[in-house]
Amino acid sequence: MSVPVKIAIAGASGRMGRMLIEAVLRDPATELHAAFERAGSEFVGRDPGEFVGQTTSVRITSDVAAGLQGAHCLIDFTRPEATLVHLAACQAAGVGMVIGTTGFEDAGKAALAAAAKTIPVVFAPNMSVGVNVTFKLLEIAAGILNSGYDVEIVEAHHRHKVDAPSGTALRMGEVVADALGRNLKDVAVYGREGVTGERDETTIGFATVRGGDIVGDHVVMFCGTGERVEIGHKASSRMPYALGSVRAAKFIRERANGLFDMQDVLGLRG
Ligand SMILES: NC(=O)C1=CN([C@@H]2O[C@H](COP(=O)(O)OP(=O)(O)OC[C@H]3O[C@@H](n4cnc5c(N)ncnc54)[C@H](O)[C@@H]3O)[C@@H](O)[C@H]2O)C=CC1
Ligand SMILES: O=C(O)C1=N[C@H](C(=O)O)C[C@H](O)C1
């Protein structure tokens, strides 16, 4: 039997961190190698298995450099500023990264690309198979509905989400804009208020809903005259994000370096 993929998890007590701990512990091909939380967190020193009713020999730590020793991969769902600190530690330790954190500025994304020259990195705003298939459906739809259809993207998430629009909605915008030969940075409209004037047909609009415990809903509308096509995805659990991340961790174990996303992991590229 081959050696299990040794996975470290950053943001271990977060909504995604707990889900990842469950996914890693229940997969016989993976091993929970380390679990990280920020210094001062009430969870430092505790067994991450507690989140899923299990006992493990791992203890949550804020010492990322020490915890990465011997790991194959760090899965990070935290905040951009934390991910970039973890990225530097992974580079120093020669450990690959699976990054699900959203809300990066361009400079942060450039730092990820630079690090991927020396370590393998999977960076994707959504790790679920369903959302990644939805990206492909959007590419096909936009290529066909390329004239006479206004594109609007609506996303809804829980009350705790800190970035908007979601990383997934932005990627959906990029996929559609690319298929239409437009640059999202030039055509995106983020919310509307007051006397906005009539809609410019080249724009791609975004609307954001935040409330309760909504896990993640996305819909892209292609609004024509007398008809509307809607392509979307609704998550009712975070487990698909965790399972996709574990799949990505197995994928990067086979690679020395490079920047990948879930389209690469799932073989959907091209
Ligand atoms: N790519 C994907 O498939 C998905 C991405 N996400 C993204 O993952 C990120 C986390 O989401 P949630 O788990 O819901 O958030 P959360 O708030 O529940 O968890 C964040 C975790 O990061 C830790 N953290 C925050 N700042 C830190 C710092 N400076 N140093 C060390 N640790 C720090 C927190 O202590 C916490 O454990 C968000 O950016 C979200 O958009 C969420 C779900 C799916
Ligand atoms: O914060 C979340 O919860 C989610 N974030 C990701 C995003 O910003 O797209 C993915 C998913 O929608 C859940």
Automatic annotation (TrEMBL):
The entry's keywords: Amino-acid biosynthesis, Cytoplasm, Diaminopimelate biosynthesis, Lysine biosynthesis, NAD, NADP, Oxidoreductase
One annotated GO biological process: diaminopimelate biosynthetic process
Positions with a binding annotation for (S)-2,3,4,5-tetrahydrodipicolinate: 158, 167-168
Keyword Amino-acid biosynthesis annotated: yes
UniProt binding sites for NADP(+): 38
Keyword NAD belongs to the record: yes
EC top class named in words: oxidoreductase
Active site: 157 (proton donor/acceptor), 161 (proton donor)
Superkingdom of the source species: Bacteria
Catalytic activity: (S)-2,3,4,5-tetrahydrodipicolinate + NAD(+) + H2O = (2S,4S)-4-hydroxy-2,3,4,5-tetrahydrodipicolinate + NADH + H(+); (S)-2,3,4,5-tetrahydrodipicolinate + NADP(+) + H2O = (2S,4S)-4-hydroxy-2,3,4,5-tetrahydrodipicolinate + NADPH + H(+)
Pfam families registered for this protein in UniProt: DapB_C, DapB_N
Binding sites annotated in the UniProt record for NAD(+): 11-16, 37, 100-102, 124-127
Location of the protein in the cell: Cytoplasm
EC code: 1.17.1.8
GO cellular component, one term: cytosol
Major localization class: cytoplasm
Database matches in PANTHER family: 4-HYDROXY-TETRAHYDRODIPICOLINATE REDUCTASE 1, CHLOROPLASTIC-RELATED, DIHYDRODIPICOLINATE REDUCTASE
Family designation: Belongs to the DapB family.
Function of the molecule: Catalyzes the conversion of 4-hydroxy-tetrahydrodipicolinate (HTPA) to tetrahydrodipicolinate.
Quaternary structure annotation from Swiss-Prot or TrEMBL: Homotetramer.
Name of the protein in its database record: 4-hydroxy-tetrahydrodipicolinate reductase
